[in-house]
Amino acid sequence: MSAKNQFKTLILLSLLTALLLWIGSFWGQSGLLFALIFSIIMNIGSYWFSDKIVLKMYKAKEIHSGDMFNMVEELSIVANLPMPKVYLVPSAQPNAFATGRNPKHSAVACTQGIIDVLSKEELKGVIAHELAHIKNRDTLITTIAATIAGVISYIATMAQWAAIFGGGRDRNNEDLLRLLFLIILTPLIASILQLSISRTREFFADKTGASFTKDPHSLASALEKLEHNHTKIKMGNESTASLFIVNPLKGKSMMKWFSTHPPTSERVKKLRSMKHI
Fold first, then answer.
1. Distance (Å, rounded) from C-alpha 204 to C-alpha 142?
2. Are 125 and 222 in the same domain?
3. Which among 39, 186, 226, 266 could disulfide-bond with 17, CB atoms 3.0 to 4.6 Å apart, if both were Cys?
4. Are 189 and 205 contained in the same domain?
């Protein structure tokens, strides 16, 4: 893993740890100890199991044959990568993602929708893009970020219910203010975590993927189709949106400034400007 990705991972895990310790401080030393133990478990779990959690979340089923499997196998050889596991997600939304902590423990997942919508050459371009994320070692940081963001959002929800049912009745004004900040700010922190993954990684993955297929225009065509089709069916949640080749929740959030993906039009423009490699 590159030093840059190591630093990003450290920042994300440290932020989760700090947040959990801050929450634990509401309950004194025993709360701090519980939060510390929980944070260690979460950090280890994020590293080893976050990919499995995401695949299970989307009900992905591993496949061992078919056109998509053959494309992944062919392009893995071109990219000089170990063969990742291949999964099919039973969703009509056209989309795809890669996950895993390193190239030796990676997976590529495509939805049924993307197989139905794209031509073989376009699908090949998308799979090459996902393999580029594996090659560039984006998948660990992206998957951990998705797991951490989900935990933070869950913490915010728990804090909100605690406040509603009188969890802060016996606390002073300062503690109630801290609880209020927790409820309001933690969803924002989850969004910032997603943004901590540089949006330029998508441009780099587009370029790297195009070098695998020698055909940047097919990926550009695929992105244009996905842009016009994926918004009809929503899938997933904010915490895992950054994993996908296009945002599965586009149109749901009004916070365009907090988008985890660069505008598709910019990606297409860059790809169209490339000659067949």
1. 15
2. yes
3. 39
4. no
Strands (E), the chain: 61-63, 85-89, 96-102, 105-111
Range of the domain at 247: 59-138+200-272
Catalytic residue at 122?
Answer: no
Which one of the listed residues 73, 74, 122, 130 is annotated catalytic? 130
pTM for this structure?
0.77
The total number of structural domains that make up the chain: 2
- Helix and strand numbers, DSSP H then E, in the chain: 10, 4
* Cα 277 to Cα 261: distance, rounded to the nearest angstrom: 25
**CA distances in angstroms from 40 to 25, 32, 35, 199, listed in the order given:** 16, 12, 9, 28
What dihedral do alpha carbons 142, 145, 147, 151 form, nearest 10°?
-170
88-107 burial string, b = 16+ CB within 10 Å, else e? bbebebbbbbbbbbebebbb
